[in-house]
Amino acid sequence: MRQPFYTYLMRHRAPVEVDDVTRLANLAFADTQFPKQSKDFDEISTYLETYAPFYFNLGLFDDIWAMYLEA
């Protein structure tokens, strides 16, 4: 069974942002409203587009989602 996307992201948190995955992980960690239990691309993508209190390039999100699916 696949882990939630947030759980996958938290494996990439770091105090120094070394890449886009680390940046998104750090932003999601600081966002108390991030859909932490979701495994759904559309739900997370819509959240990032509409409700996230930060900006993140959704093209990069697509790439990170592909890595999540491969993990």
Automatic annotation (TrEMBL):
By its UniProt entry, which Pfam families does this protein fall under? Answer: YozE_SAM_like
Alphabetized InterPro entries for the sequence: UPF0346 (IPR010673), YozE_SAM-like (IPR023089), YozE_SAM-like_sf (IPR036806)
Show where the YozE SAM-like domain sits.
Answer: 5-70
Q: Which family does it belong to?
A: Belongs to the UPF0346 family.
- NCBIfam families linked to this entry: PRK13672.1
This chain belongs to the protein called UPF0346 protein AALA52_05550
Record the organism.
Answer: Lactococcus ileimucosae
